[in-house]
Write a structure and sequence with these properties.
5 strands, Rossmann fold, single chain, alpha/beta, globular, five-stranded mixed sheet
Length: about 150
């Protein structure tokens, strides 16, 4: 597996589910966004990052993780590279951040792939399904950015 897209969050909490929403849309839009290279992308949608993801992460060259952010303006998004957490941080029984996931992936074979986080600003994380208008409007741009991240060398 060359590329891995992980969308995570709670789709029952409005914008908190943007990662899962983006993952689902990417499955449909990847051929148009990436052409034949879309066959190299494996897409996973999960409620939270967990140790079970360490193996598919370790088997990938590049991983993009998408989640809601409370540090961005609603509908705006940022991309940042994640370095594996240090061993001093120690593993927890559940992974809640991409840096720990990267460390666990490194532990499976001694190397960790490039991991990029796309953080999408959330407006509403109350109970409810569907994205707020600002976040929904940003989804096409997020999809384009993810395709560009996978296609860049």
């Amino acid at each position: 597996m060359k590329y891995l897209l992980i969308g995570y969050g709670n789709p029952l909490r409005s914008d908190d589910g943007v990662g899962c929403h983006v993952a689902g849309e990417f499955v449909d839009d990847a051929p148009a966004l990436m052409g034949a290279a879309s066959a190299d992308v494996h897409v996973v949608s999960v409620g939270e990052l967990a140790p079970e993801l360490a193996e598919p992460v370790a088997q990938s060259e590049r991983v993009v993780v998408v989640n809601a952010s409370y540090g961005e303006l609603p509908g705006e998004f940022t991309v940042r590279r994640v370095e594996p957490a240090s061993e001093a941080d120690g593993p927890a029984s559940y992974v809640y951040d991409p840096a720990t996931l990267a460390a666990w992936a490194r532990g499976t074979d001694g190397k960790a792939p490039e991991i990029l986080v796309v953080a999408v600003g959330a407006a509403n994380c109350a109970f409810g399904q569907g994205l707020s208008p600002d976040v929904a409007e940003a989804v096409p741009s997020v999809l384009e950015k993810i395709a560009a991240l996978f296609l860049s060398d």
